């Protein structure tokens, strides 16, 4: 079971996360891909990573833009699971 992060821990994590924002009790970031099929492929890659981690983001797809929203619902806020998944999503976006 994951432990909810404190505000200072979240602030420290955000300094290492590229363009992620804290919105209420979530981390969120929007990515833009060159084409709609590439956006869908990106979501598929994230889905594999999320399934492997057994930690699943909320995903909003709007043409070439994909927004991920992360939160550990069972803990009522952000945990290290969310930070780790944000880092994994960033790695996938680069690769």
Automatic annotation (TrEMBL):
Q: Which CDD domains match?
A: PCD_DCoH (cd00488)
Q: Which SUPFAM superfamilies match?
A: PCD-like
Which InterPro entries does the UniProt entry name for this protein?
PCD_sf (IPR036428), Pterin_deHydtase (IPR001533)
Q: Which family does it belong to?
A: Belongs to the pterin-4-alpha-carbinolamine dehydratase family.
| Catalytic reaction list | (4aS,6R)-4a-hydroxy-L-erythro-5,6,7,8-tetrahydrobiopterin = (6R)-L-erythro-6,7-dihydrobiopterin + H2O
Give the EC number: 4.2.1.96
Q: Signal sequence: where?
A: none
> Where does the chain cross the membrane?
none
Query: Could you identify this protein by its name?
Result: Putative pterin-4-alpha-carbinolamine dehydratase
The GO annotation for biological process reads: tetrahydrobiopterin biosynthetic process
MF terms from GO for this chain are: 4-alpha-hydroxytetrahydrobiopterin dehydratase activity
Q: Which Pfam families match?
A: Pterin_4a (PF01329)
Ordered alphabetically, the record's keywords are: Lyase
Supply the HAMAP family for this chain: Pterin_4_alpha
Q: Which domain of life is it from?
A: Bacteria
């Amino acid at each position: 079971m994951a432990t909810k992060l404190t505000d200072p821990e979240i602030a420290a994590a955000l300094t290492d996360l590229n363009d992620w924002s804290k919105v209420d009790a979530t981390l969120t970031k929007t990515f833009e891909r060159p084409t709609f099929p590439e956006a869908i492929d990106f979501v598929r890659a994230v889905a594999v990573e999320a399934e492997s981690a057994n930690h699943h983001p909320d995903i909003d797809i709007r043409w070439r833009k994909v927004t991920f929203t992360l939160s550990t619902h069972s803990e009522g806020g952000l945990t290290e699971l969310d930070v780790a998944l944000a880092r994994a999503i960033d790695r996938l976006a680069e690769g």
